[in-house]
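ok so i was messing around last nite and threw this chain in just to see what happens. nothing serious, just curious
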Amino acid sequence: GIEMQIISDDKWSAPFLLPFNFCFFGVNYPTLNVGSNGVITFNNFAEGDICEWNTDIGQTIPDPSFPIRNAIYGVFQDINPPVNTAPFQRSINYQVIGTAPCRLFVLNYLNIGQYSCGTSVGLQTSQIVLHENSNIIDIYIKDRTACNDWNEGAGVVGLQNADGTQAHFPPNRNLGNWEAH
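result:
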């Protein structure tokens, strides 16, 4: 994949021009932002803006006060790309697979350490896939561990609309302390 230049904690990428418009909750978006905390949004953040991480374990989606809305959480938690994960390679990267009108935008979070816990509880590896035309969203999780010493180990996988009134998430994967392998 092509490496995203997200090398700092709690930051957004520059707006990324997708190779196709993506319809999310009925709105077509030509761009998205990639966050260092396992999230993409269709909001327009400038490169280097703060990618929020602080969530309340009692808070669940949908919620208009959730720190990041209009987003795909795959897994959203306070991860930290600068953490040295040697001997494992770490990367936030993307690729576009296929040809129009059936392309895929694939975003990978590979072996990312966590804020506060570093590598001591394991590394996060997940993937978000956006499908051209069908607007299907796939989220794959290879490893998600909770950092119980920080932010109550909170993490969420799913999606939420812009005003925080609609959300989708798998059972037992709304904001909370959970693991997946």
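not much to say yet. The radius of gyration is 15 Å.
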